[in-house]
C-alpha cells in the first residue's frame, strides 16, 4: 500500500468497519472506501468468538477493498472494552549531569520507568500519557526538552488493559490475513475525529456511545486527562425494549431507531405502533410513551455513570472545569432528544459530534455520521503513523549522508519523534503472535 494511505479497523460490538483513507493536498482526510459487517464474535468490546470475528473482519475488509478498488494489507485497530481502566501516577528521575539540557532520552527514561509499575495479573499498560512536567520543583511545564535541571518529574495518565483481550484482537487480524500496523485506544481515536483543538484546550468530555460500551475521554489544556470505558451501550437499551415489550430483538432495534426518544414527556398517550406478531399471532400494540419511558430509564443510567467518571476527574473544581462541556458521538448519539437529556442531567453544554472536523469537504453524508467517528479517527491515526515512519526514514538517510558534515545532521535531527507506546505495544503484540505460531 502507498505511504499516504491508511486503513482503520473498528471492531465494535454491533458492527465492524474497515475504512480506507488518504490525505489530500489540503491535508484533509479523503475516504476512498468503507466496508461494514455485522459483528458476531464481540461482546462489550471484547472478542469472545475468534472464528466469527475473523469472518466479520474479512467481510468488512472485502467490502472496503471493492469500494476503493485496492488491496488492504495493514490496518490500524482500536482497542476498547470493559477491561480498560485508567489511573494517575507521578514519577521522577534524577539526572546525573544537570549541566546538560534535558533531551528526549531523559523523557524516555522517565516514561519507561512508569512502564515498570506493578499491575494486576494479566494487565498491561497500553498508554502512558504525560500530563505536565516539573523541573527542579518548577511546576506546570508543558515541554521540558532543552531546559536545565537535575530532577525531572511528571504526572502521567496511565491506561491499562488486559493483555489477553489485546492479543485476541491481534490474533483475529492476523488470521484474517492482515498486518497489524498500530493499536490505538478507541476513545482517543474518536476524540481525534470529532473534537476541535479549541475544545480540547477549553476542556471537553467526549462520550462515545457504542453498541456494547460507552467510551469517555476528557481533555483540558489540549492534554488528555481521563479515560474510561463503561460496559453499557445501545445494545442494553435494545435488550430492555425487547424484554419490556416482549418482542424479538430485530423489532426492538427498529423501534428504537425509528420511534425511540430519550425524553418521555413529548409523546402523547394515544401514539401507538403496531408490531406484526410471530407466525400468525396477533400483532402487538405498543404506545410510544411506554417505549420512550423504557429508553429513558436506561439512558439515564448510562449518562449518570459517565457523569460519575467526569466528577472523578474533578470537573467540579474551578481549575478543572470543562468549559466546552460534552460532545456525544457513536451510534447511540443518534437517539432523539439525547442532547437535551444529557444537558438536563449534567448541566453541561452538549453537542452531537460528527467526524467531519478533518474530512475532505466533499465526503459522503453517510461517512460523516457519528457512527463512524472511531473508524475515521483510526484512519487519521494510521496516516499519522505513516508520516512518522517517513520522517524516521528521512532522518536515517540524512544521518548516513552527513556523517562527514556534522553540523547539518544536527539541524535535521529533531524530526525524530518519540515513539509512542502504542508503537511499542503493537510490536509486543506482533512479537507475541509471531512466537505463538
Kindly describe this structure.
By secondary structure, this protein is an alpha+beta fold. The protein has a domain of 65 residues: ATPase, nucleotide binding domain (Nucleotidyltransferase, domain 5, 2-Layer Sandwich). Helix content is 38%, strand content 27%. It contains twelve helices and 18 strands. The strands form five sheets. The chain has a five-stranded mixed beta sheet. The protein has a five-stranded mixed beta sheet with strand order 14-13-12-17-18, with helices on both faces. The protein has a four-stranded antiparallel beta sheet with strand order 7-10-8-9. Strand 1 and strand 2 form a beta hairpin. Helix 3 crosses helix 12. The chain is globular and about 85 Å long.
Low-confidence stretches: 407-417
By CATH reckoning, the class of one domain would read: Alpha Beta
What is the strand content?
25-35%
Rg for CA atoms: 23 Å
CATH architecture heading of one domain = 2-Layer Sandwich
Averaged pLDDT: 88
CATH superfamily of one domain: ATPase, nucleotide binding domain
**Element-level helix/strand string:** EEEEEHEEHEEEHEHHEEEHHEEHEHEHHH
Strand order of the largest sheet: 3-2-1-6-11
Secondary-structure-based class equals alpha+beta
Q: End-to-end span in angstroms? A: 25 Å
What is the total tally of β strands?
18
CATH topology of one domain: Nucleotidyltransferase, domain 5
Helix content range: 25-40%
Q: Can you tell me the overall shape?
A: globular
Query: In this structure, how is the largest beta sheet organized?
Result: 5 strands, mixed
Count of helical stretches: 12
